Amino acid sequence: MAKKQLRIGLIGYSFMGRAHSNAFHQVNHFFPSSYELVPQAVCGRDETAVRAFAEKWGYKSIETDWKKLIARADIDVIDVATPNNLHAEQVIAAAKAGKMILCEKPLGLNGKEAEKMLAAVKKAGVANMVWYNYRRCPAVVLAKNLIDAGKLGKVFHYRANFLQDWTISPDLPQGGTGLWRLDVKVAGSGVTGDLLAHCIDTALWLNGGIKDVSAMTETFVKQRKHNITGKVERVGIDDACIFHCHFNNGSLGQFESTRYARGHKALYTFEINGEHMSLKWDLHDLHRLQIFDHSDEGQERGWKSIHVSDGDHPYCGNWWVPGLQLGYEHSFVHAMVEFVKGLESGKGCTPNFEDGLATDYVVDAVLASAKSKKWIKVKQALRHRVPLNSNQTCP
Ligand SMILES: NC(=O)c1ccc[n+]([C@@H]2O[C@H](COP(=O)([O-])OP(=O)(O)OC[C@H]3O[C@@H](n4cnc5c(N)ncnc54)[C@H](O)[C@@H]3O)[C@@H](O)[C@H]2O)c1
After folding, report:
1. For residue 240, how far is its CA from the centre of ligand 1 (angstroms)?
2. Which atom, in ligand 1's list, is nearest to the CA of 131?
3. For residue 357, what are the CA distances in angstroms to 102, 108, 229, 268, 351?
4. Whose CA is nearest to atom 21 of ligand 1?
5. Lining residues, ligand 1, CB within 6 Å
6. Helices 353-372 and 111-124 sit at what angle, rounded to 10 degrees?
7. CA nearest 20: which of 315, 335, 287, 268?
8. 8-state DSSP, 57
9. How far is CA 382 from the centre of its chain?
């Protein structure tokens, strides 16, 4: 049977543009389905650069205005891989045009924006996904499966860190290409919406909703030269954030993120402690899951490290032979596999825009708590699936 084509229009072609484009090709190669992912067009403002990207990654055509890309009849899916302040406008326009939507994280600059984005995809009935890719690392899925099977029993603690060190120099400017993350108008916030958003998404998935938070943030370098205005301007982002929280299941959470942890480039770790079992994961060793099982016999009891690469481990059977590990890029491939599966089942996939909104609500509460120095209740996102249009389901 002929495959149904999913013609993708990508907006933004740098870091995430490459990660997504790689995923589109790999899904076709390694995860057979009734769909064929077609890199149809890529959009960027610099025509020469975007043309070179299209050639390298197999896109059939280019656009230099994202509105034109969204208006095209030969595009089924819009993939938003632009800086955070563009997500809402691009997503809402894409939903109005009836396109399916993949959007990078964080979904909106804040919960208010994300609410509008969710409302737009619901109104249009279009399939949607947020690229919280760490959910799709095989070892993280294994953790989810163990938790869902009840192996941990009652959960007491969830702790996560995301540590980097690339903004320590006060001479680093803010704003513009490559440095928009330091400009609060473009990024929305600092490490909270950028790095902790990943930790929060994984935590909500593994351990359920967060009830309330108490946070502190710090901006270590208060002023930086702005690349676009050329002036020294106040820095509006948080350089570091630490928060603790109550989960709805009664467990306690502790989260830390910073771009000032000298020596750490992208150290995302989480640990969850239950009555019967604890689990640990580390992005630097992302193909491993550490497990402590309290039911192990006496002297053999201890932490074990599972090399998540066997044929029956999540997603692994579709790749090489048992024992050969997967890495960062595969998390994006698996995210896209879930999107395709969601179309085939007609039920949609996760993390979708409701999940994206749930994380934005936690980010909002964390920033509000840091500002007010008070405990803040987290707004809860509704949990029901966005129905898809019948023309977006597999016959
Ligand atoms: N899922 C993840 O692990 C992960 C990792 C990094 C970034 N992100 C998210 O992905 C998004 C993009 O981040 P990045 O690191 O790829 O940024 P980047 O700066 O590397 O790329 C941004 C791209 O957007 C393009 N762009 C900017 N304005 C545009 C416009 N008006 N029209 C068309 N294109 C425009 C830029 O030219 C560039 O190609 C952000 O929302 C970020 O938070 C997610």
Report:
1. 21
2. 1
3. 14, 8, 32, 22, 10
4. 14
5. 11-17, 43-45, 66, 81-84, 86, 104-105, 131, 133, 178, 194
6. 170
7. 335
8. H
9. 19
Q: What is the pLDDT of residues 250-283, one digit of tens each?
A: 999 999 999 999 999 999 999 999 999 999 999 9
Q: From CA 376, how far away is CA 366, in angstroms rounded?
A: 8
Domain count for the chain: 2
b/e map of 313-336 (b: 16 or more CB within 10 Å)? bbbbebbeeeeebbeeebbbbbbb
232 forms beta bridges with: 225
Distance 180 CA to ligand 1 centre (A): 9
Distance CA 14, CA 16 (A): 6
Range of the domain at 120: 4-133+386-392
Q: Which of 10, 11, 13, 16 has the most ligand 1 atoms within 8 A of CB, as the residue to mutate?
A: 16
**Is 123 found in the same domain as 206?**
no
| 31-74: pLDDT as tens digits | 999 999 999 999 999 999 999 999 999 999 999 999 999 999 99
Q: pLDDT, tens digit, for every residue of 330-354? A: 999 999 999 999 999 999 999 999 9
Cα 41 to Cα 54: distance, rounded to the nearest angstrom: 8
Final residue belonging to a domain, choices 277, 297, 326 = 326
Q: What is the pLDDT of residue 381?
A: 86
Cα of 105 from ligand 1 centre, angstroms: 10
Q: Are 253 and 164 within one domain?
A: yes
d(CA 283, CA 134): 9
**145 & 256 share domain:** yes
Same domain? 154 vs 128: no
Angle at CA of residue 20, ends 288 and 56, nearest 5°: 120
Residue 355 lies in a domain: no
- Residue 248 contacts by C-beta under 8 Å, 6 or more apart in sequence? 208, 209, 210, 211
CATH number of 263's domain: 3.30.360.10
Q: Which of 10, 14, 360 to mutate to test the pocket of ligand 1 (most atoms within 8 A of CB)?
A: 14
Task: Say yes or no: 84 and 159 in one domain.
Answer: no
